[in-house]
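Changelog entry: the Phosphatase record was regenerated in this release. Current contents:
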Amino acid sequence: MKRASFIDIGTNTALLLIADLDPVNNRIIPVLHRQTIVRLGKNVDEQKIIDHVAMQRLIQCLLDFKELSKEHKAERIVAAGTSALRDAKNRMEIIDEVVMASGIVIKTLSGEEEAALTFTGAIAGMENAPERFTVIDIGGGSTEISMGDMACLDQSVSLDIGSVRLTERLFSDQPPSETEFYAAKEEIDRMFTGNLEPFFAGREHVFGVAGTLTTIAKLVSGQKEFDPAKIHNYPLHYNQVRQLLEELKSLTIEQIIGRGVPEGRADVITMGTLILHQFMRLLGVQEITVSIQGLRYGMALKELQQLQGENSNIL
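Regenerated structure tokens:
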């Protein structure tokens, strides 16, 4: 087996998975999970630049992840950046600074690459998978929707609607005014219109990944502390999402933090919940299965497949 670290650098959060890759039994065995709210994409939607302070937060986070990887004897670190790096005009400068400071090379994924890796990661290791299913990933800068089966991804789209991006663009405060809230709803509907139709074929079985979905599941299930084992495969119903949205849109950031939402997510969870609500409403989805897996697992699966290829060449 080979132990490796996989880092997903999103607009709001950086996520680490250290895992053992077992090419003989085709398994990804998680060793350690970590997440840090970096807010790399702060003001990127407006300025198209990642500022120095955000870059320093990222570098410190990656140094911490590198130390954890060393402690757990990971042989390799694979890092990928998504929406914030895609949008930033100075992404090459950021990537160069990160390499010099940490030695970690970041690959910037296209929206299509992100959707494909997230799709395979969400269902990695799943038994008794549905014949056809859809995966949604609501990030800080973008939302990826993908559909297919265990053998093949055949439909995907990446949309520039994320919890950080739209909060910065459309909400002046939390709670938002009624005018701001409905303007956000109209903007989300506008972005979804014309893009959701291909996914009606996979709406009976939908999986949701990433921080917005896991946070919503934690809130509606009444958990005080985040427990991955209780969140993974949690069935999230449309009525639960609708009720939570009604509550969140009238709460202050301090009140949301009091509900157990981390400080770096409390100001954007209302928008993230609104995006999920509109997705479910427009597509007619009654239930979403929450997965704690996603892009990191897709990266790990790709590494596992490459390892299997190397072993077959040796044989």
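The chain has two domains: 2-111, 125-290.
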